[in-house]
Amino acid sequence: MSHPLHPLLVHFPIALLYTTVLFEVLGYLLKKEALRQTALWLLILGLAGGVVAAIAGAWSEELVEAAGVPEAAIDRHETFAILSLVAFGLLLIFRLWRGRGWIPQNEAIYFAIAMVGLLLLGTAGFFGGELVYRYGAGVERPAPPTPEAPTR
């Protein structure tokens, strides 16, 4: 694949997952269930998009390594990305169980998981940016200049 898909796909789940927490906070503060329902759908869409972006990232990992990006830098980004998906997956499970009455309403735990998820997601994004801006992952480099032909 000549064009990396991961950078094209990753921005949507990031935006959706951050917006999820915003809508949950607003729904809680304003006592609006519609905002919290919207947050649930944003969470589902954000997680689905995150899984797709993670798969695309895994597909391009070998190409990025072959371009000279250190494996440790890639692994650091990948680890935080996976941990953020796990945190938001737990958030979804908590949300669904809470909605069914299987666990008590505990906003402190819910928002603690959400904050951890956001911190992990932000850290994954930071290290993803490092892959691009520090190591040039996915950046085409110009061809080396060709020597000029001698003039007579």
Question: Gist?
Answer:
75% of the residues lie in helices and 0% in strands. By secondary structure, it is mainly alpha-helical.
Written description of the protein model:
Helix 3 runs antiparallel to helix 4. This protein has 5 helices and no strands. The protein starts with 5 loop residues before the first helix and ends in a 19-residue tail after the last helix. It is mainly α and 152 residues long. The chain has one domain. Helix content is 75%, strand content 0%.
SSE series? HHHHH
The biggest sheet, with number of strands, parallel, antiparallel or mixed sense and barrel status, is: none
Low-confidence stretches: none
Kindly state the number of beta strands. Answer: 0
How much of the sequence lies in strands comes to under 5%
Note the gap between the termini: 45 Å
How many structural units, i.e. domains? 1
Helical region count? 5
> What would you call the quaternary organization?
single chain
Q: On the 0-100 scale, what is the average pLDDT?
A: 91
Q: What is the molecular shape?
A: elongated
Report Rg. 20 Å
Class inferred from helices and paired strands: mainly alpha
Q: How much helix, percentage-wise, in residues?
A: over 70%
What secondary-structure arrangement, pairings included, does this model have?
Layout: H1 6-9, H2 11-30, H3 33-66, H4 71-99, H5 107-133
Characteristics:
mainly alpha; 75% helix; 0% strand; 152 residues
